[in-house]
Structure formats: C-alpha cells, structure tokens
Specification:
Elements (H helix, E strand, L loop, with lengths): L1 H27 L6 H37 L14 H6 L7 H4 L1
Helix pairs in contact: 1-2
The chain binds zinc ion.
Zinc ion (ZN) binds next to helix 4.
C-alpha cells in the first residue's frame, strides 16, 4: 500500500506543480496596450489567480499526505482515528477525515 500510494501522490504532486507553473507563466505573459482588452485580461487573470490558489492549496494537501505516509499516519482519520476506507483514499488520496467525520 505504501509504494502504491507514494507513487500516486508523487504523480499528483508533479501534475499540480506543472499546473501551478503553467498558470504562473500565463499570468506573467505580456499585456496588450489596448484598454478594452486589458479589462478582459484582468478578468481572465482573476480566474487564473483563483485557479492558481486552489491548485497551490491542493498541492499543500498532497505534500502533507506524503508526510503522513512517511510517518505511518496515512489513511487514519484525523478526527476519530479510524481507518479511512480504501475507496475514499482512491478518490481523494490526501483525505484526512473518514467518510463519517467528513460529513
Ligand atoms: Zn473519522
């Protein structure tokens, strides 16, 4: 289970890191001089920034899950201490709560 989860989380970390980098590149791309276009660009930027923030947060959760995996605490509910079901971990590899506590 360790090897498999470690691989899954590392893959996810890679995908998310690339996404954050890609968004950072999009955000730093040159701006047009036209003011009407600038408004649209600014709106797009807001969307990109939100996406970037969300992705960064997800990345943090993935990294925290990797730490728990190394500490042997992975897959244990942070609230009640019960095992988190494999199906839930499959769907959400960085889940910290079991299905009952997450409700
Ligand atoms: Zn629980």
């Amino acid at each position: 289970m360790y090897e498999e989860k470690h691989k899954q989380l590392k893959e996810l970390e890679k995908v998310l890191t690339e996404r954050v980098d890609g968004l950072a590149r999009d955000l730093s791309s040159t701006h047009s001089a036209d003011s009407a276009e600038q408004v649209t660009e600014r709106e797009n930027e807001d969307v990109l920034r939100n996406l970037q923030e969300e992705t960064k947060m997800e990345l943090q959760q993935v990294r925290a899950a990797l730490k728990r995996l190394d500490a042997g605490e992975y897959g244990v509910c942070a609230s009640c201490g019960a095992d988190i079901s494999p199906a839930r971990l499959q769907a959400l590899p960085y889940a910290t709560l079991c299905i009952h506590c997450a409700k």
